[in-house]
Amino acid sequence: MANFSSFQDTLPDPNNSIGNAGQPTGSTGPGYASVELTSENKNLRSRTNSGRLIARSIAYHTWKVNIGYNPMTRSEFENIYNFLIHRRGSMTPFFVSLPQYRLAQNANFVVHQGTGSTPLEAAGTTFAGATSAIIGRSGYSSATNGTPEPGDLFNINGANSNHKKAYMVTKVETYDDYLTGSRPASNAQIRVHFTPGLAKTITTGDDFVFYNPKIKVIANDIQSYSLGVNGLYQFGLQLEEVQ
After folding, report:
1. pLDDT, tens digit, 9 for 90 and up, residues 150-179
2. Assuming Cys at both sites, which of 7, 85, 95, 199 could form a disulfide with 214, CB separation 3.0 to 4.6 Å?
3. The domain containing residue 86 runs over which residues?
């Protein structure tokens, strides 16, 4: 008799299976017909009489995900629908993996992407709110191993197990990018700029994971579908990031 130590907490898709007991093995979920990712920054802004802009952030950053599915058979549909209604709408968060961010764009960077490989680590303490961090590790060379690229998504795994925010790379600096000023100490380090700012403080040794980063989300409180005369199920999904 099988005893499962964990349950699937990621929306079923072709890379994330689920079984009848909720275990992360069994039938794969259907692929996505379309994916829409929205970055929402809430700012307060006004202009002076001379036209000068005054702006400040007034709330947290949120990723929003809209997923469209092709028409599904009942077995395909039930894998995702029951996963969702088990969570009672927005009551229980879960994770979603987006196929376009599953791998970093730079093929040379694979060995340092994270899970199952050798992730780059924070080189020092970086406080919440910061929008850049120096990362690296012994044996890494940005010249030969490549770097993440703008548009890559990543998570941070460290001592703070509640740090589940997803971040997107906006710029990457190597040792050779600038001749003066603050910069990575060597080719074994890079400075990664990202959005949004850090949700939590990170410390030396925290892993930057670029392989299969996930977004922690909740679904709408109302989930509905339509069944066509061809016996296929029509379904779409709107998700919102939570911490």
Report:
1. 999 999 999 899 999 999 999 999 988 876
2. 95
3. 17-99+216-241
